[in-house]
DNA polymerase III delta prime subunit (Leucobacter luti), 386 residues
Amino acid sequence: MEYWAEIVGQTDAVRTLDRAAETGVVAAHAWLITGPPGSGRSNLAFRFAAALIARTAETRESVFEQVRARTHPDLGVLTTQKLLIDIRAARDIVTTAHYAPAEGRYRVIVIEDADRMPERTSNVLLKALEEPPERTIWILCAPSEADLLPTIRSRARSLRLVTPSPADIAKLLHERDGIDAAAAERAARLAQSHIGMARRLASDEGAMQRRDRSVELALGIATLGDAMRAAAALVKVAEADAAALTEARDLREREDAMRSLGLAPGAAIPPQMRSQMRALEEDQKRRATRSLRDGIDRILTDLLSVYRDILLHALVASDGDDGGIDLINREERARIADRAERWGPIRALAAVSAVETARTRLTRGITPALVLEALFAGIIAAEEPV
């Protein structure tokens, strides 16, 4: 099972997929891999894809290197940097699915973020799942089965992932990436078992500093003025985080596009070629919008961990024992204890609920600054004496 060693905490799922890939005759032509963010859905999907494509167990790793780079001729990937998967992209991938495999046993189509398919796009996919090509396997990834249409769910074999433990993630970071054990433990704990975020916090000092800044701002709010300033500051934190993720990629894409047009990077763009570059710029703007909203959602997840710690501390302290509380944000134990004493369980629970409301508002397209302002203003209002 060494091939699956990087898949953390998913023993049952790995056993199921390994058995399916080894037989050479896959019982299901479509698989739905569900699990919470950071559970490793995409990593597992691409590992499974490579195992299906490879003709022998010995060639799995070499095939996976191509799959990971998205360069294998028998792999199709449908993903998006936008808020929703475009129907035209879905039609294109359905066409790809009907090609016979060029090198491997199967042609495999992976749909990341299948929950981002609106109903019209899902219906395009449904037709392909109803009459699947003989040598094509579909792998869909989503947070939960409820995120997909019932007609899609009924045509796929479901595989539910569990949330990996922070200890398992810390072990992976330490043994595979060579990260100091203490740093790996802290990153895994603060990432709340999100594998990708744990790796980033452990290896990117800037990411950890931005996370610490978010928590500091949240715990420093005492007045409505503080709330408005914190909201503005957190938007800037999210913008910096999004820029760190996208700037290098945007520049590389622009340079590659110019080379494909026969232009040197930085050269003037002839009028007849500007439409191609404008299309790239529009795609990058849409990706930047999604990256910013994803960054705000990560901040809200971090804030949720703070308010969850306050609630836990308030509940335990109300029973007369505040020792040995397993906090996510242990580094802020003193400030969390102080806030828990002032708030009590009811206000702490209200803050937790307010974050969930804020996350819902974010998905509805409300401006991030307004989402954060409403969140903090509501928490301040709840803290005021009646």
